[in-house]
Write a structure and sequence with these properties.
The protein has about 375 residues and is of the alpha+beta class. The protein is built from five helices and 14 strands. The protein folds into three domains: about 110 residues, Efflux pump adaptor protein, beta barrel domain (Elongation Factor Tu (Ef-tu), domain 3); about 70 residues, RNA polymerase II/Efflux pump adaptor protein, barrel-sandwich hybrid domain (OB fold (Dihydrolipoamide Acetyltransferase, E2P), Beta Barrel), CATH 2.40.50.100; about 140 residues, Helix Hairpins (Orthogonal Bundle).
Length: about 375
């Protein structure tokens, strides 16, 4: 029987080393996982503490922009531009001259209005004089009536005497005591007295009619000036108003800055013909800017007017913090106030979180120290514990 082959020795050192390395890797992984878990727990605890102590009492958004109540400059009278005194980006003060228009036409209108006023005053004085003359004429007509009535009484007496003489002679003519010539003379005297009486009566009627006409003319003239002076006469006051309007038009040929601010969007040049109401430039009141912050609807549950807010602008970064307060909350979301509002009445409707503009007023002193411009991006944080 042949001898058996000798046994080959097995080296177990390599296997032990691999097992040990795998164990160490497992231990290291376990340690890092434990550390990561602890870190996550610590971060969660810190975030929870921050939220409980601070975060839940503040809401913030980066959907916020600088805005202002800008003044749009428009000419109040049409005219040709003679001079433009400002340029874009130029700072102006309230009352500074911006544009000068040609005053020729307004000055002509002023001269015409002043002439109309003088004519209106003259017509009033003429009406007063006419009323006085009509009053005197009415008085004279009364005297004419008295004279006519006196003449009527005289004519009546002459008529009565002539009738009596004629009647007596007519009765005596049959006996021959009165000649025919004498009777004829008496008859003629009677007829003349009768005609004189009719003429006197007509004179009285004419005088009375003249008095009525004079009274009517006086009343008409008096009604024009009754209860008025030259300055309170309606026609004079209307003419004065036209003069004042013409004076205002002349003044408005010099267009001045309505507020303090910076000139933007200048659209006017020398020699240009501008129409009344046409925008020619805009003035931005950089010292009275505010922030329009668009918060999500769920962020506004506790937001109230008067709460303090902190604002940082991208132009300065976090080094500059503006302090303001909530002064207003818009009456509608941006989408509802859009030119074409969103129509959600469809079968594929998807709910979209809406944003509501909140106005934040800024401290003018901080604005003066670090000026802003309309449209710049900002971040806003509102303290919900303030009031």
């Amino acid at each position: 029987m042949a001898d058996a082959a000798p046994a080959v020795p097995v080296d177990t050192t390599a296997g032990d080393d691999a097992a040990e390395a795998a164990f160490r890797r497992s231990q290291a992984r376990r340690i890092w996982l434990v550390r990561l878990g602890i870190a996550v727990v610590v971060v969660g605890v810190l975030w929870g503490g921050w939220y409980l102590l601070f975060g839940r009492n503040h809401v913030s958004t980066d959907n916020a922009y600088v805005n202002a109540e800008m003044a749009q400059v428009t000419p109040l009278v049409p005219g040709t531009v003679l001079g433009v005194k400002v340029s874009d980006t130029q700072a102006v003060k309230q009352g500074d001259v911006l544009v000068v228009l040609d005053p020729a036409t307004p000055q002509i209108n002023l001269a015409q209005a002043e002439a109309d006023l003088a004519a209106a005053r003259r017509r009033f004085r003429q009406a007063q004089a006419t009323a006085g003359a009509a009053s005197a004429q009415a008085g004279a007509s009364g005297a004419d009536i008295g004279r006519a009535r006196a003449q009527l009484a005289s004519a009546q007496a002459d008529f009565d005497k002539a009738r009596t003489d004629y009647t007596r002679r007519q009765s005596l003519s049959a006996s021959g005591a009165v000649s025919g010539e004498e009777l004829t003379t008496a008859r003629r005297s009677f007829e003349a007295a009768q005609a004189g009486l009719a003429s006197a009566r007509a004179g009285v009627a004419q005088a009375e009619a003249a008095e009525k006409a004079a009274q009517g003319q006086y009343q008409a003239s008096a009604a024009v000036v009754a209860g008025s002076t030259e300055d309170t006469d309606p026609a004079v006051r209307a003419a004065v108003a036209r003069v004042q309007q013409a004076q205002l038009d002349v003044k408005n040929t010099v267009i001045r800055a309505p507020i303090d601010g910076v000139v933007t969007q200048r659209k006017v040049q020398i020699g240009q013909r501008v129409a009344q109401g046409t925008p020619i430039m805009t003035i931005v009141p950089v010292g009275q800017l505010y922030i329009d912050a668009n918060f999500k609807e769920r962020q506004l549950r506790r937001v109230r007017i008067g709460m303090p807010a902190e604002v940082t602008a991208d132009i300065y970064g976090g080094d500059v913090v503006y302090h303001g307060k909530v002064v207003g909350i818009a009456g509608g979301t941006g989408s509802s106030m859009a030119l074409i509002p969103a129509q959600n009445a469809t079968g594929n409707w998807i709910k979209v979180v809406q944003r509501l503009p909140v106005r934040i007023a800024l401290d003018p002193k901080e604005l003066a120290a670090h000026p802003l411009r309309v449209g710049l991006s900002t971040e806003v944080e509102i303290d919900l514990t303030g009031s």
